[in-house]
Amino acid sequence: MKTLLNILIIAALATTSAFADAKVKAGPRKGLILDLGVKQAEFFVEKDRSISIAVYDAALKAQPATTEVITATAEASSGKAKLVFEVKDGKLVSTTKLPDGEGYQVVVQAQAAPDAKKKNFRIKLLLYTCKGCSNPEYACTCADH
After folding, report:
1. Domain, as residue range, for 73
2. Per the domain annotation, does 86 fall within a domain?
3. DSSP class per residue in 88-117
4. Which of 59, 90, 96, 100 is most exposed, with the fewest beta carbons within 10 Å of its own?
5. E strand segments, the chain
C-alpha cells in the first residue's frame, strides 16, 4: 500500500512538472502562439471581438495565410458559437464576433495545411491586460500565473 502511494505521488509530481514546463508563448501582436509544427499561428482578439490569426515561420517571421485551416468554437454560457475564418490582409479573420462576456473556453482547431494533422487548442478567454507582461490574460507569459 505504501509503495502504491509513493508511485501515485511521483506520478502526480511528474504530471505537474510536465504542465509547468509547457510555457505560454506570445507573438509580436501580444497574442497567444499556437504551435502548428512547421508554422506558428498567433491567436489575437481584436477590439471588435473578432479573432485574427497571423501566421509565422519558426523564427516568428510573418507569412501570409495561404494553406492554413482554422475553425473555432466559443463555449459561452449563452451557448456554443461557431466562428468561421476568411483571409483578410494576409491574416485569417473570423467573420463573426465572439459572444459577449469572458471567462469561457474558445476551442481552436488548426491545421498548417488541409492535409496536415489537426491540432486542438483550448483557450480560456480572459481579455483584461496582465500587469506583469502587458499581454491579454489569455496570452499571459508570467511564470507565476
Report:
1. 26-139
2. yes
3. ETTEEEESSPPPSSSSSEEEEEEESSTTSP
4. 59
5. 32-35, 40-45, 51-56, 62-63, 69-76, 79-88, 91-94, 105-111, 119-124
Sort 30 into a burial class: Cβ within 10 Å, 0-12 / 13-18 / 19+. middle
Tell me if 102 is assigned to some domain: yes
- Global pTM reads 0.82
Tell me if residue 138 falls in helix, strand or coil. helix
Closest among 106, 99, 30, 36 to 71, alpha carbons compared:
106
Report the CATH number at residue 31: 2.60.40
Predicted confidence (pLDDT) per residue in 80-118, tens digit? 999 999 999 999 999 999 999 999 999 999 999 999 999
Alpha carbons 60 and 110: distance in angstroms, whole number: 17
Contact 143, 22 (CB under 8 A): no
Q: Do the domain assignments include residue 10?
A: no
Is residue 6 situated within a structural domain?
no
Where on the phi/psi map is residue 131: left (φ > 0), alpha (ψ -120 to 50), or beta? alpha
